[in-house]
Amino acid sequence: MSIQTSLQTSATPLGRDDLARLVARDIVPGSFVNLGIGQPTLVSNYLTEEQNITLHTENGMLGMGPEAKDEEIDGDLINAGKIPVTELPGASYFHHADSFAIMRGGHLDICVLGAFQVSATGDLANWHTGAPDAIPAVGGAMDLATGAKDVFVMMTLLTRDGVSKLVERCSYPLTGVGCVTRVYTDKAVFLIGPDGVTVRETFGCTFEELQALVPVPLVPFKEKAAGAAVGV
Amino acid sequence: MLNFIDTVGEAVSGIKDGSTVMIGGFGNAGQPFELIDALLESGATDLTVVNNNAGQADQGLALLIKEGRVRKMICSFPRQSDSWHFDARYKAGDIELELVPQGNLAERIRAAGAGIGGFFTPTGYGTMLAEGKEARLLDGKWQVFETPIHADVALIKALKADGKGNLVYRKTARNFGPIMAAAAKHTIVQVSEIVPTGALDPENVVTPGIYVNSIVKVA
Question: Which residues from chain B sit within 8 angstroms of residue A123, using beta carbons?
Fold first, then answer.
C-alpha cells in the first residue's frame, strides 16, 4: 500500500470491470460491505481473500459467497437481487429488522450503489426517475444510503446524451441527503467532503478536460486539500 | 391458543374481507405459496397486503392481485421484471400503493409486534417518501417519525415447528417471518416439518411459539 499525494491520471477511460477492480482495491481489509444490485455486484469478483471482506445482503445474511451454480442453487438462499448465492464459512442469518438495524445502526463500513445523479454535497438520486407513469420502487436504497458509514457510488460520469450525472443539485427524486462520500466513474474518482468535490484520479482525460464536463467546481487532489492522504 | 391444522384451506378460513394481511417472503424465498393459494381459493377480498414486493410472475401474491382481491399494497419494491399483474392493476388505478423504504417497512412491522407507538428514523429524510411526516434533529441527524404497521393476520413460512409452536427457518427464507409473526393478531405458519416438543434446541429457536396461532404442515 502506498500513499497518494497528488492527482493521478491514466491514458484511457475505465471499463465496467476496471472500475469494479478499482473499487474492490479501495475497500479497507476487514470491512463489512453491502454491494448494491447491478454494476456494484461486479466488485465482488475482485475482492481478494487477503482483504477478508464480509458481504452483507439486505435480506438477512452476513458472509454471503459468490453466485450459486448448478447443484449449489437453493431457492432459500438468495441475494437482494433475488439471485441464488452461496454461504461462506462463518455466515449468519437474521430477520429483516435486524438486517436493516445493521445498516441504520452504522455497523456497515461501506455500501456501493449505482446512481442516476450525485450532487456536489453528496445527495444521492438512484431510485426513481420521477416520470409520472413510472411505478416507484425503493427497496433498501434509502436505508443503505443513510446508514452505511461510507457510501461509494459507481456510475458512468455522463448520461447517454453526454450530460454530467455529477450535478450541483439533483433533479431526480432523492434517495438520501449528503450521504455519498466517493464517486467512481469511467472518467474520474471523486471524493466528496466538507471541502467540496476533490478529483483523486482521472482516466483518459486531464483535470481541465474533466472540469469542462462537470458543472461543479472541482479541486485536484493534494494531500492537504483532501484533509488526509488516501491509501491506494 | 395454538392450533395444529390439517389443511391450508382450514387454516385461512377465518380471514375476513377487508383484513390487513402480512405475507412473509422476499421474492420467492420464504413466500408461503400454499397459504396464499388457499387465501385466493377462500374468496377473501378487499385486502390490504403487507409484503416486501407485490408479487412475481403468475403465482402466489401476484395471483391475489390479478384476481382483484388486494385493495392496497404496503411494500418497498413492487416493480420487478415479472410483476406484470401489479403493474397492470396499478396503471389502471385499481390498487393503492403505500411505498415504504425496506428498513422502515421492517422496523414498522417490528414496532407493531413490540408495542412501540412510533419511532424516529433517519431513513427517507429529505426524500419524497418522508413528505408530510414530522421530522426532528436527533443525535445530530434529521429523523422522520414512522408509525407501526399492525395486521389482522400474518401468513408466513418456516422450516420446522415443534409442539409449542416454536419455529426455525431456513437461510434467507427467514426474512420477514419473525417480525410479522409478532405484529399480527393471528399468525398462520406453514412448515415443512412438525417435530416433537423438545426436539428443537431452545438456544436455536428463532420465533418463540407465543407469537404463533396456527400451524399447518405443507408437503
Answer: 126
Q: Given a cut of 80, is residue A101 above it in pLDDT?
A: yes
C-alpha cell recorded at residue B66:
390479478
Do B99 and A136 make contact, defined as CB atoms within 8 angstroms? yes
User: Among B29, B109, B124, whose Cβ lies nearest the Cβ of A78?
Assistant: B29
Cα–Cα dist A101/A194, whole Å: 27
Interface of B with A in 144-163 (CB under 8 A): none
pLDDT band at residue A12 under the 50/70/90 scheme: very high
**DSSP symbols for B152-206:** EEEEEEEEEE-TT--EE--GGG-TTHHHHHHHEEEEEEEEEEE--TT-S-GGG-S
Q: For chain B, which residues score pLDDT lower than 70?
A: none
Rounded CA separation A106/B210 (Å): 31
Q: Which residues of chain A are within 8 Å of residue B142 when distances are taken between CB atoms?
A: 177
Tens digit of pLDDT for each residue in A63-80?
Answer: 999 999 999 999 999 999
At residue A229, the pLDDT reads 47
Q: Which residue of A has its CA nearest to B112?
A: A97
**Residue B7 contacts A where some CB pair is shorter than 8 Å:** no
Using CA atoms, how far residue B26 sits from A135, B76, B100, in Å, is 19, 11, 15
Give the nearest partner residue to A142 out of B123, B175, B179, using CB atoms: B123
Contact B5, B149 (CB under 8 A): no
Contact at CB, A78 and B27, closer than 8 angstroms: yes
Residue B219 to residue B217: CA distance in whole angstroms: 7
**Interface predicted TM-score of the whole assembly (ipTM), two decimals:** 0.97
Q: Are B183 and B109 contacting, i.e. CB atoms less than 8 angstroms apart?
A: yes
Quote the CA–CA distance of B163 and B19 in Å, as a whole number.
28
* Cα–Cα distance measured from residue B56 to residue B71, given in angstroms and rounded to the nearest whole number: 17
Q: pTM value?
A: 0.95
Instruction: Compute the average pLDDT of residues A39-45.
Output: 94
pLDDT of residue A223: 65
Q: How many CB pairs under 8 A join A and B?
A: 143
Contact yes or no for B101 and A140 at CB 8 A: yes
Catalytic residues of A: 58
User: b or e along B29-52 (b: 16 or more beta carbons within 10 Å of the residue's beta carbon)?
Assistant: bbbbbbbbbbbbebebeebbbbbb
